[in-house]
């Protein structure tokens, strides 16, 4: 039974994002004492231990259970968004969101610099165009290093009008890949990669068959909803920030 995570976890950076956030919270709140943290959120130590260990049956980390998430929300004042982004909504007053969520200037994109969230010369699609996506070094323009933007995320251009007026053609979006379906929050905006299409849409529940299907919804009312089988999704990225690049005078 794992008692202290500092002594057992070799590389927390390899964990899925939500698991790593829980790991970091245990470090800050109980000094790595998983037994004390499990007791504080009223879950078993065993159930907490397992999310930090690769399941030998499939070679993957288990997803953070709903019981663990709810315990953290109730006891430590987090919300569901905390599990999928670096921005702590409890500290919003300390962060200047005018840059990270709205406007940036061209000079905020540091060409040839790789220290922040990497900016790629790639289009995300808010319309019907077909495009491949290739996050390679050859496509890197530079990086953005500003409060509220997760440095491990990626920044690309949005293309098309299906998400207007939420995301305009030419805006930049900050995206992060989602590894587990359990980490998807309905009602949020995602970039969905299929074999033939790449789309930026809201993901909504398909209530008649939530296990197998979702609804992709545009902001622009001229676009119809799309019923999509989950098996067709090849990669999924949550849109964490929407950036409007302003021209400097």
List keywords for this structure.
249 residues; alpha+beta; Umud Fragment, subunit A; 2 domains; eleven-stranded mixed beta sheet; globular
Task: Describe it.
With 249 residues, the protein is α+β, with helices and mostly antiparallel strands. It folds into two domains: 5-83, no CATH class; 94-246, Umud Fragment, subunit A. The chain is built from five helices and eleven strands, in the order αααααβββββββββββ. It has helices spanning 17-30, 34-40, 45-50, 66-76, 97-102; strands spanning 103-105, 109-111, 117-125, 140-144, 154-159, 172-177, 189-193, 198-205, 213-217, 226-229, 235-246. Strands 1, 2, 3, 4, 5, 6, 7, 8, 9, 10 and 11 form an eleven-stranded mixed beta sheet that branches. A hairpin with a 7-residue loop joins strand 8 (198-205) and strand 9 (213-217).
């Amino acid at each position: 039974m794992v008692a202290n995570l500092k002594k057992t976890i070799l590389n927390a950076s390899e964990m899925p994002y939500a698991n790593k956030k829980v790991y970091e919270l245990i470090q800050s709140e109980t000094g790595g004492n998983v037994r004390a943290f499990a007791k504080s959120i009223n879950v078993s130590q065993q159930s907490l231990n397992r999310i930090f260990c690769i399941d030998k049956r499939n070679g993957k980390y288990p997803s953070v259970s709903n019981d663990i998430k709810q315990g953290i929300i109730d006891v430590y004042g987090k919300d569901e968004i905390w599990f999928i982004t670096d921005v702590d909504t409890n500290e919003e007053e300390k962060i200047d969101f005018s840059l990270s969520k709205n406007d940036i200037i061209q000079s905020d994109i540091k060409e040839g610099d790789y220290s922040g969230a990497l900016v790629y010369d790639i289009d995300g699609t808010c319309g019907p165009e077909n495009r491949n996506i290739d996050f390679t070094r050859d496509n890197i323009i530079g990086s953005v290093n500003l409060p509220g933007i997760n440095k491990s995320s990626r920044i690309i251009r949005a293309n098309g009008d299906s998400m207007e007026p939420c995301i305009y053609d030419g805006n930049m979006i900050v995206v992060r890949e989602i590894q587990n379906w359990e980490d998807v929050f309905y009602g949020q905006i995602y970039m969905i990669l299929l074999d033939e299409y790449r789309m930026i849409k809201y993901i909504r529940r398909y209530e008649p068959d939530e296990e197998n299907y979702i609804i992709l919804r545009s902001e622009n009312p001229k676009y119809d909803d799309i019923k999509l089988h989950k098996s067709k999704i090849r990669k999924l990225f949550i849109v964490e920030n929407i950036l409007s690049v302003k021209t400097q005078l």
